[in-house]
């Protein structure tokens, strides 16, 4: 299900609930060797979990996919996997609803999501900005940040507070 072809046309990624998978739907690929597609799908062990991994999409050298694994914002979230490391795309790509199919074109991203009550295509446009941060955060000897420190992100051009975050105390 949900096939996606690599940029060079040599790998076909798909999701399947094949026997002996990690659980539920997992992502696999087959390779094209001299015009012949392999019959033995290879599992992506650095992506697949006991949960569901669906809707693979390859852009450049990055695999995007959706999963309902632990640690997401809710339901299905979109992840990117670069060189074996999966990263949740976070908000606004992901919400507490199901966000599950991803396509990138230039500065625009298109996501299939049920955040509006129905499965719809949501378009997000990114306008890259550069920010510089100035300040300091205290760290313990084990390199974890002291809890309760607040970082403020301030837009000097607009003269307004953009965002803030507070470091957590880990036990």
Residues in helices, as a percent range: under 10%
Shape: globular
> Tally of extended strands?
14
Q: H/E series, N to C? A: EEEEEEEEEEEEEE
Helix run count: 0
Descriptive account of the structure:
By secondary structure, the chain is an all-beta fold. 0% of the residues lie in helices and 44% in strands. It has no helices and 14 strands. The strands form four sheets. Strands 1, 2, 3, 4 and 5 form a five-stranded antiparallel β-sheet that branches. Strand 8 and strand 9 form a beta hairpin. It is globular, with a radius of gyration of 20 Å.
Short key terms for the protein model shown above:
single chain; 171 residues; mainly beta; 5-stranded antiparallel beta sheet; 4-stranded antiparallel beta sheet; 14 strands; 44% strand; globular
């Amino acid at each position: 299900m949900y096939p996606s072809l690599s940029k060079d046309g040599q790998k076909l990624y798909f999701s399947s609930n094949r026997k002996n998978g990690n659980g539920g739907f997992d992502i696999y690929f087959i390779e094209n060797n001299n015009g012949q597609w392999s019959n033995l799908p290879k599992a992506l062990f650095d992506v697949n979990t006991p949960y569901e991994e669906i809707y693979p999409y390859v852009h450049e050298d990055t695999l995007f996919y959706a999963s309902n694994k632990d640690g997401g914002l809710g339901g299905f979230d979109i992840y990117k996997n670069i060189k074996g490391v999966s990263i949740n795309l976070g908000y606004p790509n992901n919400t507490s609803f199901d966000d599950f199919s991803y396509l990138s074109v230039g500065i625009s991203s298109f996501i299939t999501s049920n955040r509006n009550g129905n499965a719809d295509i949501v378009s997000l446009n990114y306008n890259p900005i550069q920010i510089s941060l100035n300040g300091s955060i205290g760290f313990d000897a084990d390199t974890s940040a002291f809890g309760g420190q607040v970082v403020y992100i301030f837009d000097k051009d607009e003269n307004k507070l953009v965002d803030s975050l507070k470091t957590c105390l880990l036990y």
